[in-house]
């Protein structure tokens, strides 16, 4: 129940003042001992809290989901283990999972598309798809029209140039690449919209687990490019959604 629903329920005498006060106490955050769930984030930021599953045990993740589910929130979990998903699916049958990017989703209500245009996710290679799909599912979950152009890296640049018209029709572009990380610079030189660059840890030894791609993207000569952390598809999808909803 969000704040508007709560006030409406109280106004219509569907709940008494004590029950309303009890619910209001839990609006800012709810202390579970191992986690403080920020129920107020939807009101402040327009998006509910997202669960980063890596490093949490199954009981902790399920406990957080239970409390968010009670509030009627749509739930997104990133870096979720398959075994964890299977346990959650046995409790919540509307739970969905993507094995490629390890994203878990539970939709308590339909997602309204509030984006002003299209977000396009582009990868250098097929090996970048797990991170790119994290971008894709995050942006979709947050209410956006999202498209994908995969495996169009600079080693065969004609593949990218063939899609120039589609690139130029997007409102925000997220470019996901490993190796030397040159693709965002090329895309940035072809379009007049914001480009979010995501370095991946894909590459051989001197790639330093994505550090070389990160430094290339930070030093891009193309204007209008922002860079998120290595393999941070969620952060890129979230930022792209915020940009896409601006007037």
From TrEMBL:
Pfam families: AIRC. SUPFAM superfamilies: N5-CAIR mutase (phosphoribosylaminoimidazole carboxylase, PurE). One of its GO terms (biological process) is 'de novo' IMP biosynthetic process. GO terms for molecular function: hydrolase activity. It comes from the Bacteria. Residues 117-246 form the PurE domain. InterPro entries: P2CMN_synthase_LarB, PurE_dom. Signal peptide: none annotated. NCBIfam families: LarB (NF033503). This is NCAIR mutase (PurE)-related proteins. It comes from Romboutsia hominis. The lineage of its organism: Bacteria, Bacillati, Bacillota, Clostridia, Peptostreptococcales.
């Amino acid at each position: 129940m969000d704040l508007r629903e709560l006030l409406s329920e109280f106004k219509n005498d569907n709940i008494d003042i004590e029950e309303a006060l009890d619910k209001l106490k839990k609006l800012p955050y709810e202390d579970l001992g191992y986690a403080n769930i920020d129920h107020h984030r939807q009101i402040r930021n327009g998006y509910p809290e997202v669960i980063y599953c890596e490093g949490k045990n199954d009981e902790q993740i399920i406990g957080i989901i239970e409390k968010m589910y009670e509030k009627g929130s749509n739930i997104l979990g990133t870096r979720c283990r398959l075994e964890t998903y299977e346990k959650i699916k046995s409790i919540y049958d509307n739970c969905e999972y993507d094995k490629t990017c390890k994203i878990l989703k539970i939709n308590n209500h339909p997602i309204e598309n509030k984006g002003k245009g299209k977000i396009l996710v582009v990868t250098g290679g097929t090996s970048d798809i797990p991170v790119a799909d994290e971008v894709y599912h995050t942006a979709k979950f947050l209410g956006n029209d999202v498209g994908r152009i995969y495996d169009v890296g600079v080693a065969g640049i004609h593949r990218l140039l063939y899609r120039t018209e589609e690139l130029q029709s997007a409102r925000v572009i997220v470019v996901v690449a490993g190796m030397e990380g040159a693709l965002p610079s090329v895309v940035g030189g072809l379009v007049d919209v914001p480009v979010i660059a995501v370095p991946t840890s894909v590459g051989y030894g001197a790639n330093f687990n994505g550090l070389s791609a990160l430094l290339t993207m930070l030093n891009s000569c193309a204007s209008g490019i922002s860079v998120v952390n290595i393999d941070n598809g969620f952060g890129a999808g979230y930022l792209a959604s915020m940009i896409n909803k601006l007037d």
